[in-house]
Amino acid sequence: MDRHSLIKKFDKQAKKYNKRRKNNHGYRFRQRIFQEAEGKVLEVAIGSGLNFPFYNKYIELTAIDFSHEMLKTAQNAAKNYPFKTTFIQEDIESVELSTNSFDTIISSASLCAYQDPIHVLNNFQKWCKPEGKILLLEHGICTNKTVGRLQILLNPLMLKFIGCHQDRDITDIIKQSNLTIIREERYFGGYLYLIWAKP
């Protein structure tokens, strides 16, 4: 799928993502991992800003998304939080950021949409300070074989309609990158991945 078409898909989903703020089944998982963000924080594919409630007031957030509508929604939501936020409309697969410039990098359900997720993760390693942390909440292939086969079967359809891969093995993708996994937790039959990593 070309990038322009993918961006349009996410532009159209901005209102739906915003509604998840009040009815977000992943709230407790986001809270579990993203409350550890500190210092200068980069959140990629910020979406509608679902992770804002879990950040402490002392962070300095840089928020990137390629969707204008998603960024607009997140900017509106950020008015309710005390931390300083800089918004950048860029494609995370091609944006250039300074080396060793962030204490924490956050990715929340974004690895499903990248054409080259290993390249993105290697950039995380480059952008993160050596002593920093990389916190990931992602969805991917289930450990349940029956459900996994269904995910593989439905993947072309889901990619077409919402721009999202359903069958990626997130753990394997991270292991192929330059990141080091510190801790991993899996939920919902392995569908949901919580991963603490470092450069």
- How many discrete domains? 1
CATH topology: Rossmann fold
Output the helix-strand order.
HHHEEHEEHEHHEE
State the end-to-end CA separation.
30 Å
Q: What is the beta-strand fraction?
A: 25-35%
Query: Number of DSSP helices?
Result: 7
Task: Give the overall shape.
Answer: globular
Helix content: 25-40%
Poorly predicted residue ranges:
none
Mean pLDDT: 90
- Would you report the number of β strands? 7
Can you summarize this structure?
With 199 residues, the chain is α/β, with parallel strands linked by helices. It has helices at residues 3-12, 14-19, 27-34, 68-78, 117-127, 145-162, 170-176, and strands at residues 40-44, 60-65, 84-89, 102-108, 128-139, 180-187, 192-198.
Lay out the secondary structure.
Layout lengths: L2 H10 L1 H6 L7 H8 L5 E5 L15 E6 L2 H11 L5 E6 L12 E7 L8 H11 E12 L5 H18 L7 H7 L3 E8 L4 E7 L1
Parallel strand pairs: 1-2, 1-4, 2-3, 4-5
Antiparallel strand pairs: 5-7, 6-7
Tell me about this structure.
By secondary structure, this protein is α/β, with parallel strands linked by helices. It has one domain (3-198): 3-Layer(aba) Sandwich (Rossmann fold). The chain is built from seven helices and seven strands; from the N terminus they run αααββαββαβααββ. The protein has helices at 3-12, 14-19, 27-34, 68-78, 117-127, 145-162, 170-176; strands at 40-44, 60-65, 84-89, 102-108, 128-139, 180-187, 192-198. It has a seven-stranded mixed beta sheet, with helices on both faces. Helix 5 (117-127) links the parallel strand 4 (102-108) and strand 5. The radius of gyration is 16 Å and the shape is globular. The model has no long low-confidence stretch (mean pLDDT 90).
